[in-house]
UniProtKB/TrEMBL annotation:
Residues 25-53 are annotated as: Disordered. Gene3D superfamilies: Periplasmic binding protein-like II. This is Amino acid ABC transporter substrate-binding protein. Residues 1-21 form the signal peptide. It is found in: Cell envelope.
Amino acid sequence: MKKILKRGFLPMTMAAAVVLAGCGEGQEEGTGDEGGADDSDAEETEDSGENYDDLTLEDGKFVFALSGEYRPFSYIDENGDLVGFDVDIGMAIAEELGLEGEPYQISWNSIILGLQDNRYDAIIGSMGITEERKENVDFSDPYYYSGAQVYTRSDSDIQGLDDIDENTEVAVAEGTTYHTMIQDYTTDIVTYDSDVVALQTLAQGRHDAVVTDRLVGLINIEDQGLDLELRGDLIDEEQMAIAIRHDEDELLDAINEALEAIHESGKYEEINQRYFDENIGEN
């Protein structure tokens, strides 16, 4: 197995404690968590003549949402800090905009509703571009590429997606593209709030397979020592992008320009290398 998780990286720490998002029916909680770009970074970018305060909900801040349950893209570390690739990308974009970055943790099932409710400016949470989601949000240019993959225990006879049928119990994270896709193969589906929990329960002997992101599966198998294996070919390729509300074209343009800037400056590559041994920003 190719090693794709970078060991020994120093995650970006946050200045405030994170409260986990509630996911009970009819109850949605999230929390902003300040950190990352300091005042000097913001002032330096403001000197360029651009002012993006009018494009965000709160003057001087760029608040972006993620689940915090999608290691290594967003998760709570041993110090209680919200860290990960998506967190670092969001903070780098905020710095390019001359704003203070503030990640906001919320359950995945509520993340689009929270955006439409004006709780935050954007979603930077490994959200794949789909036609269904385009009905509710606008997407930036892709900021990384991955795809769906089948995982099983090492003693399983399942060799890939074609071996999944009505007799196969598959675990997925609720509300994901994997949840939608696997319904074409089986109705015996168990859902979790987190892809990582689905993988852990599979390793504990429950379910027959998990469908999740290729990178998330490989990294959590390596990081947690799970006795699981990747099966078959990549099911599809997903383009992960930043989601914002419809009709906020100026903010969308600013985010795309910031993405281009962090690629050109080498900041994107620096962040990528903290977590991966392959460039996930290349198609």
